Amino acid sequence: MASTYPISKAIRRDLGKVEEGLKRLAAEPDGVLADACGSTLAAGGKRLRPALVLLAGTAGSATLAELMPHCLAVELIHMASLVHDDILDDAPMRRGRPSVHAEWGVTVGIAVGDYLFSKAFEVAAAAELPSAPSILAKTSVDLTEGELMQRRAACRADLARTEYLARIEKKTASLFETACRLGALASAVPGPAADALAGYGLNLGMAFQIYDDVLDVAGESDVLGKAVGADLRDGTMTLPMMFAVEETGAVDWLRGALGVDSPGAVADALAVIDRTSAAQRAKDVARDYVESAVGRIADLEPRGLRATLRDVGNYVIQRYH
Amino acid sequence: MASTYPISKAIRRDLGKVEEGLKRLAAEPDGVLADACGSTLAAGGKRLRPALVLLAGTAGSATLAELMPHCLAVELIHMASLVHDDILDDAPMRRGRPSVHAEWGVTVGIAVGDYLFSKAFEVAAAAELPSAPSILAKTSVDLTEGELMQRRAACRADLARTEYLARIEKKTASLFETACRLGALASAVPGPAADALAGYGLNLGMAFQIYDDVLDVAGESDVLGKAVGADLRDGTMTLPMMFAVEETGAVDWLRGALGVDSPGAVADALAVIDRTSAAQRAKDVARDYVESAVGRIADLEPRGLRATLRDVGNYVIQRYH
Questions:
Q1: Using one digit for the tens of pLDDT, what is the confidence trace for B172-186?
Q2: CATH code of the domain containing B242
Q3: Alpha helices of chain B — where are they, by DSSP H?
Q4: Domain membership of residue B81 as a residue range
Q5: Which residues of A touch B137 (CB under 8 A)?
Q6: How many domains does one find in chain A?
Q7: What is the pLDDT of residues A155-182, one digit of tens each?
Q8: N or C: which end of chain A has fewer CB within 10 A?
Q9: What ipTM did this prediction achieve?
Q10: Do A111 and B151 touch (CB under 8 A)?
């Protein structure tokens, strides 16, 4: 289905301005830092988090200028965490290009992450919303804790589903939630509606990550921009793997491939997963989260926004990458 | 001379409260993150940056509660940058203990830095001073740029003095400046006096780093808590090395040791430096910066604070570690 998500021309145009803003920030530092930031930025990305800021903002009356700092901040935090995570996972590729540390070295990778991170707070602190830096900082703590939970649970084929869900909530859903909350608060949306939007974001983020985990075992490398099976190689246990273990009634096939640097072992495990209904079952769980997300905004005004957010939800669990 | 710096009992007691605050923050996360943060914290440190917040604060009327978030924030940023820098420099020791990545691995090292960093912004954002997150974010960008300048200039025995000074201003002096500025602003110190205190901090930071660089070529390992010659091994060109090159009229002895993993080569280069007056000349430059620092606060009230800040300046260029 959709290779891009269904938003209005107005929002798409605003996202273009966000892109320009990101480019300006990436060009600010000196030398290799600017080169590496520019390269990270040019690799693209869906910019889903700034889009959520803009969409949540349409529930109120904020101008683009008022929403812009939050759009930039959430995307900068996201980019910073990707750059650092790629070092931790020693991921060679990101979005079809070499990852920052693969191209520029670990030193530059750590510094680029720190820079993007600092810039996010600088931008957020300059916004009109006094609570922005604090909300963003809490989220950034969540992202770090989530990434560490992932590393700590590495190669644990017996990981409990609750642990998986707690991890993806911190690692992914928290920033989706924050994007929606910041957009709503910047737009002076009343408390209950702002909470509804944040709840939408949280559930959407859960769906997004679960579907991402499905793509990693059942997607196609050339569309993903990275090799499939990355989670297997990293030793990151995901929901579709859990379902496949459950369905096969065995775990040995997974233990032999989880965190093992062997293309053959990974291919074998992917083949096992492919023979089960694990991918479909995980997609169903993702769909449940989208339904919860949509349920949270059942009373949200305007009605057109509700429809768009539902469409975004459907996109998230039907995208190719 | 002094192994600790000359501050009043009241400030020393307040620093004890800062230490308790840092401990509470370090204990907040789960599992290995808390262990690693706790270990970093327990390694100690002079807590000079929070002390500067407190001292600058005494130029106005702020309570400890008003200054506390800034004390915590500057020390957290400092700790975060140390943890990440140790990874970049692959430094095995810090303050007489294994560095975080040496003890817990690079993954935990990156995550601990990110966590401390996020916490700094969370704490700063909760302060009563709206400009705090922005000031802190700019400084944190400076620290990152300074560290990258250092890596970029690695092994360049012909580094210009202006480049060295620009680097240490970003890497060290900027956070000293910010500590003083935040203390002054939180204490509602009038603009000119706040600028004077910030100028004091900036110059003090320059002196501190230059003297640090002297200790690295002329200090004693057991007092420093890390091996001498670390800058030589890392390939980090410093002011005393520049003076020694100037005085010997040769650079080959330095090229043979800069960034070279050879205890013999490092010992030889240290012996060459020791036969010159490079350490003393660099100490003189550090003293000049202390004099500039003290000159910036010539009109500052109360007079007792002026005397204390002068004593702190003298401590900085006479300490053992």
A1: 999 999 999 999 999
A2: 1.10.600.10
A3: 9-27, 31-42, 48-57, 64-88, 100-104, 106-125, 132-152, 161-168, 174-186, 191-218, 221-224, 230-234, 239-248, 252-255, 263-274, 278-296, 303-316
A4: 10-316
A5: 118-119, 121-122, 125
A6: 1
A7: 999 999 999 999 999 999 999 999 999 9
A8: N
A9: 0.86
A10: yes
